[in-house]
Amino acid sequence: MADALNKEIDLAIEELGARGDGIGRAGGDTIYVPYTAPGDRVRARIEGRRGDGYAAVAAEFLRRAPDRSEPTCAHFGACGGCAWQHLGEKTYARLKRDLLIAALERQGLKAEVEETRISPPGSRRRVRFAGLRTAKTTVVGLHARAAHDIADLVECPVSAPGIVALLPRCRETAEALAVLSPARKPVEFAVAITASDTGLDVTWTLPRAPDLADRQRLVRFAEANDLARVSWRPPGGGEESPPVAEPVALRRKPVVTLGGVDVEIPPDTFLQATLAGQQAIQRAGAQAAASSPKGRAADLYAGCGTLSLDLARGRAVLAVDGDAAAIAALDAAARRATLNNLKAERRDLARRPFTAEELNAFALAVFDPPRAGASAQAEAIARSKVPVVAAVSCDPATLARDLRTLTDGGYALERVTPIDQFLWSPRIEAVAVLRRR
Questions:
Q1: CA–CA gap between residue 225 and residue 193 (Å, rounded)
Q2: Separation CA 230–CA 215 (nearest Å)
Q3: Residue among 177, 172, 171, 170 nearest 216 (CA)
């Protein structure tokens, strides 16, 4: 498309892509247009190259798809957290499922894909907010779509109401913290909020250690808002391995119930994003367990025990994870509950996956890795004799890749359950069950 920049073209939106954008085609070129839906016809303005196609914006809607819905949030379009609030319910559920099916098909896989289990609005219990402190203002919210700008949130229909209600208090505290006082340039920070069963657990990511006065401010922040715990940590490490957080105020131990067992969670630890999503994953795991022979289960990438504690009600379980704090929390919870049939072990499965020989001792293997998937571990499982495998993932592409490895190794893919706990985003969780042929 010659001289495409700022060019306007009339475009029919045919489908939605993996990032959530509408896709149309013109002259053999693929055009990506955010916040559109299949059935829309738009006048699209080209903004630049994107991969082998072009990124564009909808300058004008010439015709709207019949199953569009009015976005429920005032920040929709400015905040990058949601991409699909404009979709009708039936279209939304179908497209979530279609994303998963398309990822499987790209790997040459076919399976029974069940209907999407959708978490309700206001149920997101763990959110990491970005923050920016300047000489004139303080913002706390989520990054804009494909940009570093932060949408300063006053509402969020996805998140639990208690989390949203705390945002103004987070801004006030950020303005008071000396460690965030801007010098020559703005200061970035982050606030992670988890709604535990015993209250909100808040972890601040700060550019350097708070001094005594700042620690006292954080304590007052905890007391004024009846928070369970407030911690801080330095930046770095990425989403999968951030630095260890240091508690500043512990008023109550943050607890979540997993498999009927109370677990005292570490600061900003990994949890399934919603309780409904957690329960759907546990049900799928229980179904896999019910269809497997009697014997031990291996829960790989176990975290704090979402699946381990549920499975341990019916069989012996070895729970493994590389996160020291998470696996220690699981071990302590199992000991308090006198679950003698659950053993927790720390092990970096990306660097030292369980071998096929080790796995042969188990009747069931479940794994729930980070978004990058479990390539090395899947290869070892594929060489093992484990009768039944359940794979959990929040990334359809890496899940499909790992499932391809398992099917190439002799497993039959029986069913896949889509679980939507990332409401109005193009992300989808899934549980796949496989059986050794």
A1: 13
A2: 10
A3: 177
3-state helix, strand, coil in the chain (%, to 5): 25, 35, 45
Name every residue whose Cβ is closer than 8 Å to that of residue 338 and which is 6 or more positions away in sequence: none
What is the CB neighbour count within 10 angstroms for residue 212?
7
Residues in the chain: 437
Q: Please determine, for residue 1, whether its predicted confidence score (pLDDT) is greater than 70.
A: no
Among 192, 198, 184, which residue's Cα sits nearest to residue 166?
192
Q: Is 394 labeled as catalytic in the residue annotation?
A: yes
The partner residues of 230 in beta bridges, in order of sequence, read: 202, 249
How is 324-378 classified by DSSP, letter by letter? HHHHHHHHHHHHHTT-TTEEEEE--TTTSPPPHHHHTT-SEEEE---TT--HHHH
Amino acid present at 237: G
Report yes or no: 34 and 8 within 8 Å, Cβ to Cβ. no
Encoding tokens for residue 404? 């391809």
Distance CA 4, CA 135 (A): 40
Looking at the chain, the whole-number percentage of residues with pLDDT higher than 90 is: 90
Unique residue bearing structure tokens 């549920």: 310
Torsion of CA 411, 412, 417, 420, to 10 degrees: 50
Measured CA to CA, the distance from residue 35 to residue 14 in angstroms comes to 13
Give the tens place of pLDDT for each residue, 246-264.
Answer: 999 999 999 999 999 999 9
Query: What do you get for the CA distance between the two ends of the chain, in Å?
Result: 50
The region, left, alpha or beta by phi > 0 then psi within -120 to 50, assigned to residue 227 is beta
State the Cα–Cα distance between residues 24 and 12, nearest whole angstrom: 6
List the one residue out of 399, 306, 408, 324 whose CA is nearest residue 101.
399
Cβ atoms 434, 409 nearer than 8 A: no
C-alpha distances in Å from residue 140, one per residue of 27, 218, 375: 42, 16, 36
Are the CB atoms for 116 and 419 separated by under 8 Å?
yes
Which residue, 290, 327, 324, is CA-closest to 310? 290
Placement of tokens 């069931």 in the chain: 364
Query: Taking Cα atoms as reference points, which of 314, 420, 414 lies closest to residue 110?
Result: 414
Phi-psi region of 382 (alpha: psi -120 to 50; beta: other; left: phi over 0): alpha
Please list, in sequence order, all residues whose beta carbon lies within 8 angstroms of the beta carbon of residue 307, skipping any fewer than 6 positions away.
281, 282, 285, 299, 366, 368, 392
Query: CA torsion 133→137→143→149, rounded to 10°?
Result: -100
Q: For residue 268, which phi and psi values (nearest 5 degrees)?
A: 50, 40
- Model pLDDT for residues 325-358, shown as the tens digit of each residue: 999 999 999 999 999 999 999 999 999 999 999 9
